[in-house]
Amino acid sequence: MCVKKEVWRISPVSFPRGKRNCSKCNGKREFINSEKFRVNANGRVIDVWLIFRCETCGTAWNMTVYERKAADALNQEEYLGFLRNDAYLAEKYGRDPGVFARNRAEIVLRDQDYRVEILQDWGCGENEEKGIREVELEVPFPTKLRVDHLLAVQLGVSRSVIKRWAGETIIFCQDEAEHEDRKDGGCRRKGERNFLREKVKNGMKMGIRMNCVQDEPERL
Questions:
Q1: Torsion of Cα atoms, 138 then 142 then 146 then 151, to 10°
Q2: Where does residue 58 fall: left (phi above 0), alpha (psi -120 to 50 degrees), or beta otherwise?
Q3: 44-71 as b/e: b if 16+ CB within 10 A
Q4: Rounded to 5 degrees, what angle do the CA atoms 186, 2, 160 make?
Q5: CA 115, CA 46: separation in Å to the nearest integer?
Q6: CA-to-CA distance for 94 and 100, rounded, in angstroms?
Q7: d(C-alpha 142, C-alpha 109), whole Å
Q8: What does DSSP say about strands 45-54 and 60-70: parallel, antiparallel, or unpaired?
Q9: In what order do the strands lie in the sheet with 106-108?
Q10: Residues 43, 75: Cα–Cα separation, whole Å
Q11: SS3 label, residue 157
Q12: Rounded CA gap, 36 and 185, in Å?
């Protein structure tokens, strides 16, 4: 059977926010990544903070990236990047859950702000519409995006259709063993797959039986 392989790279469009107490608002607020750093060099040690601002009052919160880091242990290129407010570093540390955890701040993710890029696409010729479309996810940053929402948007159908397709093994997780014995590419019902409720994760692989998807207009 023909297998058409794809890699989908899923990237958030907006930065995560940090949720913590605001000294001026006297309560928990969300803080927005300013994409700017504050650097303090004191002798042979360096402190680096990524500056966030309260969405309500604008109060600054400096999220610690490095604290009393030995100057000779800090990558020189990265150090210069902090000084010039490098956008890549603001994204790298502004999406790292570990940095938020070390600062005792809740990381706030949004599932609707993301983009999907097809990085690799291996076709299999004239009969690919009758084969399996194998999709591998590349997810470099944490996201709240659920599998069912991703598939509904990418395939242009409702979530209820995605749920039904999963129940009929038209869509399946590659970790599931049930599809391996299928020789005819049929669409029998196997029950709902829990993977639809999961958040997308790096390395997840899914299969789509193209002949069944092509037949969908006639089945509605």
A1: -30
A2: left
A3: eebbbbbbbbbeeeeeebebebbeebee
A4: 45
A5: 36
A6: 8
A7: 8
A8: antiparallel
A9: 60-70, 45-54, 27-42, 17-22, 106-108
A10: 17
A11: coil
A12: 53
Buried b (16+ CB within 10 A) or exposed e, 25-36: eeeebbbbbbbe
Q: Alpha-carbon distance 135 to 8, whole Å?
A: 7
Tokens of 175: 């970790």
pLDDT in single tens digits along all 220 residues of the chain: 577 889 999 988 888 999 999 999 999 999 999 999 999 998 899 999 999 999 999 999 999 999 999 999 999 999 999 999 999 999 999 999 999 999 999 999 876 678 899 887 666 655 455 678 899 999 988 888 889 999 999 988 999 999 999 888 889 887 654 444 444 444 444 444 478 889 899 999 999 988 777 666 544 3
SS3 assignment, position 116 = strand
The string of DSSP letters for 36-91 reads: EEEEEEETTEEEEEEEEEETTT--EEEEEEEEEEEGGGS-HHHHHHHHTT-HHHHH
Which pTM value belongs to this model? 0.67
137 strand-pairing partners: 8
| CA separation for the pair 21, 2 (Å, rounded) | 55
Residues 35/57, Cβ–Cβ less than 8 Å: no
